[in-house]
Design goal:
The chain is built from 6 helices and 17 strands. It has 306 residues and is α+β, with helices and mostly antiparallel strands. Among the domains are: 73 residues, Structural Genomics Hypothetical 15.5 Kd Protein In mrcA-pckA Intergenic Region, Chain A (Roll); 109 residues, Pseudouridine synthase (2-Layer Sandwich). The longest helix has 12 residues. The N and C termini lie far apart (51 Å).
Length: 306
C-alpha cells in the first residue's frame, strides 16, 4: 500500500537538536532513507530557511529544509495493526507506551513492523515535518528500550514539542538496572557524546562530542546491581547507555555497551517510565507515567534474592 504525500513533489523537514552540525546530505539520507546518489540524481531544488544551499551545508536545530524531487515521493510503509498502547490522544498529539523490541521508524534493516507502521494504522493524521519515513516522530526510543514517547499529529504541535526538547523543558524519566553497585545516592554524568571512532554502530564519550548530561538517583542497591532513576537533561543518541558504560556501570544486558556475558537476551533494562510536557494548544503541563514491564519487575525480584 503506497501512500502519496499531499504535496506531490515537495518534502519539508524541521531539524531536531540531535542533528545539529550534520551535513545536509547526511541528514537527508537519514530522514528519507535514500542513498546520497539517489538524492543527488533526484533532487531538483533544495532550500534551508528559504535560501538555496549546497549538500555541504551544516545544519542547526529548527532549520527548515525544503526539498523538491523530480518524481513524486511516496511512502511505501504499510500500516499494520500492532495493537499499540495509546496512553493519551487528542487532536494535537498522542502518547504511546512502546514495547521492548519495536523499532520506532524504518531504517536500514528495519523497514516493516515499526512503530510508524502501527501509528499509521491506529492514528489518522500525523505530522509531516520529519518526512514520510518518520511521520509524527518527535523523539525516539531505542529498539529494546520500552516506555513512553510523544507523537505529533500536526506540524504546529510537532514544532512546539520539538522546542521543548531543545530547551530541556520536556521531562523524561527512565528507570534502569545497571551492572555493578553505584555508591552515590544521586549524581550527574556530564560527558560529551559523539560517534565512536572505531565502531560506527556505537556512540561514545569523545572530546569533540556534543554536550550530554544525565542525572541519576539510586532507587535500590542489590548485591551486584543497582536499580536507578535517570533524568535526561540532553537527548543524545544512546545517551543513558553510553554514560553508564562510561562510569563502568553499564545497563544490564545491553548488547552494544554492556559486558560480553549478559543476564538474558532481552536487551538493555531501560524503561521510559514518565514523561511531562506543555501541551501545544492548552499550554497546560501534562504528565504521564506507566508501570515497569513484567520482565523488568521479574528481574528486580530475582536480584532481590541473590
Amino acid at each position: 500500500m503506497n501512500i502519496e504525500r499531499k504535496n506531490k513533489k515537495m518534502a519539508k523537514y524541521c531539524v531536531l537538536e540531535e542533528f545539529k552540525g550534520y551535513r545536509l546530505d547526511k541528514y537527508l539520507t537519514i530522514v528519507t532513507d535514500k542513498t546520497r546518489s539517489f538524492l543527488q540524481n533526484n533532487i531538483i531544488n533544495i532550500k534551508v530557511n528559504g535560501n538555496d544551499v549546497k549538500f555541504s551545508y551544516k545544519l542547526s536545530p529548527l532549520d527548515e529544509v525544503e526539498v523538491e524531487f523530480k518524481e513524486i515521493e511516496t511512502n511505501s510503509i504499510t500500516p499494520k495493526d500492532l495493537a499499540l498502547e495509546i496512553v493519551y490522544e487528542d487532536s494535537d498529539l498522542a502518547v504511546i507506551n512502546k514495547p521492548k523490541g519495536l523499532v520506532v521508524h524504518p531504517a536500514n534493516g528495519h523497514h516493516e513492523d515499526t512503530l510508524v507502521s502501527g501509528l499509521m494504522y491506529q492514528i489518522k493524521d500525523l505530522s509531516s515535518i520529519n518526512g514520510v519515513v518518520r511521520p509524527g516522530i518527535v523523539h525516539r526510543l531505542d529498539k529494546d528500550t520500552s516506555g513512553l514517547l510523544v507523537v505529533a499529529k500536526n506540524d504546529k504541535a510537532h514544532l512546539f514539542l520539538a522546542n521543548q526538547l531543545k530547551d530541556h523543558t520536556m521531562y523524561r524519566e527512565y528507570h534502569a538496572i545497571t551492572i555493578g553497585v553505584i555508591n552515590e545516592d544521586r549524581g550527574k554524568i556530564i560527558a560529551p557524546i559523539g560517534r565512536d571512532k572505531t565502531n560506527r554502530l556505537k556512540m561514545a564519550v569523545v572530546s569533540d562530542g556534543k554536550e550530554a548530561i544525565t542525572h541519576f538517583e539510586v532507587i535500590k542497591r542489590f548485591k551486584k546491581h543497582t536499580y536507578v532513576k535517570c533524568l535526561l537533561e540532553t537527548g543524545r543518541t544512546h545517551q543513558i547507555r553510553v554514560h553508564f558504560a562510561y562510569i563502568n556501570k553499564p545497563i544490564l544486558s545491553d548488547p552494544l555497551y554492556g559486558t560480553k556475558k549478559t543476564y538474558d537476551d532481552l536487551g538493555q533494562y531501560l524503561h521510559a517510565k514518565k514523561i511531562s510536557f506543555i501541551h501545544p494548544t492548552t499550554l497546560k503541563r501534562l504528565e504521564f507515567e506507566v508501570d515497569l514491564p513484567e520482565y523488568f519487575k521479574n528481574t528486580l525480584a530475582k536480584l532481590e534474592l541473590e
